[in-house]
Design a protein that fits this description.
Blueprint lengths: L1 H22 L8 E4 L3 E4 L7 E7 L3 E4 L5 E4 L2 E2 L2 E10 L8 E9 L2 E9 L7 E5 L3 E3 L3 E3 L1 E5 L9 E4 L5 E3 L4 E4 L3 E9 L2 E10 L2 E2 L6 E3 H5 L6 E4 L2 E4 L3 E3 L4 E3 L5 E4 L5 E3 L2 E14 L8 E3 L6 E10 L3 E3 L5 E4 L2 E3 L8 E3 L5 E4 L2 E3 L6 E3 L7 E4 L2 E3 L11 E3 L7 E4 L2 E3 L10 E5 L8 E5 L2 E3 L5 E5 L2 E5 L2 E3 L12 E7 L4 E5 L2 E3 L3 E7 L5 E5 L13 E3 L2 E2 L2 E2 L2 E3 L5 E3 L11 H5 L2 E2 L10 E2 L8
Parallel strand pairs: 2-9, 11-18, 19-23, 20-24, 22-25, 23-26, 24-27, 25-27, 26-28, 27-29, 28-30, 29-31, 29-32, 30-33, 31-34, 32-35, 33-36, 34-37, 35-38, 36-39, 37-40, 38-41, 39-42, 40-43, 41-44, 42-45, 43-46, 44-47, 45-48, 46-49, 47-50, 48-51, 49-52, 50-53, 51-56, 52-57, 56-58, 57-59
Antiparallel strand pairs: 1-3, 3-7, 4-6, 4-8, 5-7, 8-9, 10-13, 12-16, 14-17, 15-16, 17-18, 21-22, 54-55
């Protein structure tokens, strides 16, 4: 019995030892893992080899079916980082296609999807480059397929006229002589023509494009140089019809001597912060010239003009807002009018310029609004040219509103505001001169020729800087012929040789300084006259016309506002029988 028990114990111990050995050797699972993207895409633009990185803990193999695909290597041993290279054996694909690359490591698998986009063949050509080039310069044309990115054959170039332009195999065009020619571009069976023009001076292409100063500076022959916000105009530049010139990053633009920026299209010179337009040292540039008869106008805002002016002979509206004009020494107004669109000049400053701030051509009617501006000592060297010198706008508006106009005083031949129609131009010719402060000029306000004017709420002070009272010194001077209506109310007129001079040669003009009769001619008057006179006499109103004048409801420069006293400061029919009668009673403060 003892022996039997001993054998059983040994067997039991052996079984325990065997079981313990099996627990110390666990089974290891096969693993394969792709590191990164599991989808590779080959496009028409990107056919370069791509890579797949993975790890495997046992020997591995690669399998796939696509004949247009090649993957290397296709097998290997376990490693932490294994790199496969995936290549295209066929670069062009008739349709979009894909395959799956399977990586097998023992019982483990990983998959990578490979996609090849379909090849798109060009349906057309697009030629890019400058249509216009200056004689003696070159420009390069580039060719792109349409649709974008489509496959095309290498392009070839041919010119229609080698006497105008030549073109080489790389699309480099050389401007030979002024004229027009066509470059024909051929790529396989595709053909595209590109018109070109050779000019003596630079002109934009006229294809509805917006050019900044930086864009122009990038064109060697544009006449604009510079970078990083500072540019110089070195030669004449023309902005073609339908094109736009914009500031871009410009902070300062310098104009060289005698150069012109001509605008047949539009300007977009609207800045959020002040931009300087200045003449080069010692230079006298020509004005920024609006010339187009189809589309020519635009906007200026926050521009500081120094010796640079605007000449408007365009057709689209122009806005000049919050700009300043200084340093003009040439015989040019700061803003010269002669076009058909409405010009609005607002919140601008005109300081000590040789010629007027705003002036219009005598034979052209340009609608104009000048409002909320500050004018100081302009027209310093111009003979008999007021600081604001306008022609009425025909059937368009002509308004001078809420400006401050201070004269050069010692320069004796320059007035404050003048609106003149001496050439009897047609239209309603309505003018509004309202709310201005005008002082120290040869005269305050002058109206000449066939003009219908409303002159109200202006403060006119000491506009008498004329050595001879017979030639100037009026607060308001009215001169002309033909049917006219002049309405005046609420004006303060002080310190002139003459308060108002009414010089007409027919009885037709109607001067209404105050008409207390209810009706269409009603006018409360409210004009105030203080210390207007010369030669020891006071002249609040000098009616040197045959027309009668209504002038009720005003405050005259007399201590007592009665008929006898007021008669002393008015010259009219009572003083000279062939003149019109002034009806001035009741006055503003009469009982």
């Amino acid at each position: 019995m003892l022996r039997t028990y001993f054998k059983i114990a040994i067997a039991t111990a052996a079984a325990f030892v065997f079981a313990s050995c099996n627990n110390d050797s666990p089974v290891v699972e096969d693993k394969v893992q792709v590191n990164g993207e599991t989808e590779l895409v080959f496009s028409q633009e990107d056919t370069a080899d791509k890579t797949v990185t993975f790890s495997a803990n046992t020997d591995w193999t690669v399998s796939y079916e696509a004949a247009w695909l090649e993957v290397t290597p296709t097998s290997g041993v376990a490693a932490e980082e294994i790199v496969l290279t995936v290549s295209l054996k066929e670069v062009e694909a008739p349709v979009k296609r894909s395959d799956v690359v399977v990586i097998t490591a023992g019982t483990a698998k990983a998959e990578v999807t490979v996609i090849q986009e379909a090849t798109v063949y060009a349906e057309g050509l697009e030629v890019k480059g400058n249509h216009r080039v200056v004689t003696g310069y070159t420009t390069t044309l580039s060719v792109e397929a349409t649709p974008a990115g489509a496959k095309m054959d290498a392009p070839a170039f041919e010119t229609s006229d080698e006497a105008v332009i030549t073109v080489d195999a790389n699309g480099v065009v050389t401007a030979v002589a002024v004229g027009e020619a066509v470059v024909t571009v051929t790529a396989g069976e595709l053909v595209k023509e590109f018109w070109m023009e050779v000019t003596e001076t630079f002109m934009t292409d006229g294809i509805g494009k917006t050019y900044t100063f930086a864009d122009l500076a990038a064109i060697e022959y544009s006449g604009v140089q510079g970078a990083a916000g500072e540019y110089v105009i070195t030669a004449d530049v023309t902005v073609a019809e339908t094109d736009v010139i914009a500031l871009g990053d410009a902070k300062k633009v310098v104009f060289n001597d005698a150069v012109t920026l001509s605008v047949d299209g539009l300007v977009d010179f609207v800045a959020t912060e002040e931009v300087a337009f200045a003449a080069a040292e010692g230079a006298t540039p020509k004005p920024i010239y609006f010339t187009g008869d189809v589309e020519s106008g635009g906007s200026f805002k926050n521009i500081a003009f120094n010796a640079v002016t605007i000449r408007y002979y365009g057709v689209a509206d122009v806005n000049v807002e919050n700009c300043s004009f200084t340093g003009v020494t040439a015989s040019e107004p700061c803003v010269n009018l002669g076009g058909d669109g409405l010009v609005t000049v607002s919140n601008c400053k005109f300081i000590e310029n040789a010629y007027p701030a705003v002036s219009g051509a005598a034979n052209l009617q340009t609608p104009i609004i000048v409002q909320d501006c500050y004018l100081y000592k302009n027209s310093q060297t111009a003979r008999n040219k007021p600081q604001i010198n306008l022609t009425p706008g025909g059937d368009g508006v002509c308004k001078v509103l809420r400006n401050t106009i201070i004269g050069p005083a010692e320069v004796t031949m320059n007035g404050g505001i003048c609106v003149s129609n001496m050439m009897s131009l047609g239209g309603t010719n309505n003018v509004e001169i309202i709310g201005n402060k005008v002082s120290d000029n040869r005269y305050g306000i002058a109206i000449y020729g066939q003009v219908n004017a409303t002159i109200s709420d202006n403060v006119l002070m000491n506009n008498k800087y004329e050595s001879n009272p017979m030639n100037g010194g009026s607060g308001v001077s009215l001169y002309g012929m033909g049917t006219q209506k002049i309405y005046m109310s609420g004006n303060h007129i002080e310190g002139h040789y003459w308060g108002i001079t009414n010089i007409f040669y027919t009885a037709n003009p109607i001067l209404n300084l105050g008409n207390l009769t209810e009706g269409e001619n009603y006018n409360p008057g409210g004009n105030v006259f203080v210390d207007n006179g010369n030669g020891g006499a006071l002249y609040d109103l000098y009616n040197n016309s045959t027309g009668d004048v209504m002038a009720q409801g005003n405050t005259w420069n007399v201590d007592v506002q009665d008929e006898a006293s007021i008669e002393e400061v008015i010259y009219h029919k009572v003083d000279q029988s062939n003149l019109g009668l002034v009806t001035f009673m009741p006055a503003a403060s009469a009982e």
